[in-house]
Design goal:
alpha/beta, 504 residues, 28% strand, 11 helices, five-stranded parallel sheet
Length: 504
């Protein structure tokens, strides 16, 4: 068979790899700030992730939705941006060339890598184990869930937390390596505040049920390799989705704490062990069951054995153990500085160690000296911020100008929703790197709000706000201006004192 001839394209001023939140934001910002430059966006999926309904909640906090659009929509909105559906196979940093799997070569003057992250999937080749990262994987999950009686969710981050709450009509085993739920984002106290929501019946919201279905014209969404991923899911990705199993029940969640997966067994392998599987006990049955009861449960297609020795049968397993930077295709044979987890190191101008190459979003690791109350987390909010800032840095470099670091890197600020509660994280919200000589101020109203202020030397360094507290802007200012609050003591969180007005 004669191989296709290598096709070379004209040199583009700026090439961006990745059609997720960081890449699309970078392209949109470049298009707006330099409409005379020709910009090329290479995406592994025909659907790109566009930020919509953007709103500033406070100086540092922002909310937005993520909408998947066909490539043509971006070209229509940004006339100087060309979008091509293609999979990048390698980068030649010295020649300023991007090579693709269909033998195209794109030359660039400036390049921004926004290839995001990829799931850390346990037993990646096991047909009963799936990861959730992009639209295609969510569609696969929905399809499997329809006929499922029981699933196992492994992981304790944002996607795992949202999944466990949203799933109905299906038993859920939640296996976490920590001693409290959702600890990637919140502390043990906040986890206790959330726990009643695992057993409470969900309120039926008056909103349309969302099925992930998109029309992409002549394009066919397919994976070229297992590492070819669409853009990451955006905020509130599960809201309104029909995540129902085959049973007529609401929540039935059992949490196994401080465990990891020891092994995954087929039905035949489980029978050979001669061991008993744990019976998944409904809350109403638990009081009637003798202590230590187990049964030889061979009705399941797959079994998961945990490091505490317990074995559970289930229909399939969701691996939600986080992501690692998706950098493999571009780092080979290039002199990138890499972090321990494979992230491409960037300086405070989002520049990598390879000439004229920038990186933004989940694929990169910030190596600059961070502001006292900022830290990097691989979140949609930071992907958007980094994409926009990288665009400004590229333009400044092309014009030999300096650029001031964006304010968003002064304070870590993230707003999301867990268990149907608004959750705001500010600064060193879990006392990260503050040492042991800090103190916590707490205000908890069961079922309504959880407020935690992280204090050190009389000054606020971080906060967790759960519920409709209306304190985010006030706490944001207190963290940034580092006012000495020693005189207020515990009255800082006194519900009878309107501190929003006091510190306005």
């Amino acid at each position: 068979m004669i191989m296709d001839a290598i096709r070379k394209e004209e040199t583009k001023s700026i090439v961006i790899i990745g059609g997720g939140i960081a890449g699309v934001t970078c392209a949109e910002t470049l298009s707006a700030l330099c409409p005379d430059q020709n910009i090329l966006l290479l995406t592994a999926s025909p659907l790109i992730k566009a930020v919509t309904n953007f709103r500033k909640v406070s100086r540092a906090l922002e909310t937005f939705d993520v909408e998947e659009k066909p490539m043509a929509a971006m070209e229509e909105d940004c006339p100087n941006v060309q979008v091509i559906h293609v999979v990048v196979s390698k980068l030649d940093g010295e020649k300023h060339e991007v090579h693709t799997e269909d033998n195209q070569i794109f030359k660039y003057k400036k390049l921004c890598i926004c290839t995001g992250g990829k799931p850390k999937i346990i037993a990646r080749d096991n047909p009963y184990v799936i990861g959730i990262r992009d639209t295609e994987s969510v569609q696969d999950f929905q399809k499997r869930l329809t006929n499922a009686r029981r699933i196992a969710v492994v992981g304790n981050g944002g996607i795992a937390t949202e999944l466990v709450y949203e799933i109905q009509g299906c038993q859920v085993l939640w296996a976490i390596k920590d001693d409290s739920i959702s600890c990637t984002f919140v502390d043990a106290g906040a986890a206790q505040f959330f726990l009643p929501q695992l057993v409470a019946a969900k309120e039926k919201l008056e909103q349309p049920v969302k099925r992930l279905k998109y029309t992409t014209g002549a394009f066919k969404v397919s994976r070229v390799t297992s590492d070819t991923l669409g853009g990451a899911l955006g905020p509130d990705w599960s809201a309104g989705l029909d995540l129902s199993g085959s049973k007529q029940e609401s929540h039935n969640v059992h949490v196994e704490y401080k465990v990891e997966v020891a092994q995954i067994l087929t039905q035949e392998q489980f029978k050979l062990t001669g061991k008993c599987a744990e019976k998944f006990i409904d809350k109403r049955e638990k009081a009637q069951l003798p202590s230590g009861s187990g049964i030889l449960d061979d009705r399941w297609p797959v079994y998961i054995e945990l490091t505490n020795g317990k074995i559970y049968g289930c229909d399939f397993i969701v691996s939600a153990t986080g992501v690692v930077p998706n950098s493999a295709a571009v780092v080979e044979n290039n002199k990138f500085g890499l972090s321990e987890d494979g992230g491409i190191k960037v300086n405070n101008k989002m520049q990598t160690s390879v000439m004229d190459v920038y990186a933004a979003g989940d694929v990169c690791t910030a190596t600059w000296e961070p502001a006292p109350h900022w830290l990097q987390m691989r979140l949609w909010s930071q992907a958007r911020q980094m994409g926009a800032y990288a665009a400004k840095c590229i333009i400044a470099d092309m014009h030999n100008e300096d650029v001031q670091m964006d304010f968003c890197f002064e304070l870590f600020a993230h707003v999301t929703k867990f268990f149907n509660y608004k959750v705001v994280l500010l600064g060193r919200y879990n006392a990260q790197d503050l040492g042991s000589d800090h103190e916590l101020l707490l205000r908890v109203t069961k079922g309504q709000e959880y407020v935690k202020a992280v204090m050190k030397d009389g000054r606020m360094h971080g906060a967790i706000l759960i519920g409709e507290t209306d304190l985010e802007e006030t706490f944001e200012n207190l963290i940034l201006n580092q006012m000495d609050l020693s005189v207020y003591g515990e009255d800082l969180l006194n519900p009878n004192i309107d501190i929003e007005d006091y510190f306005d």
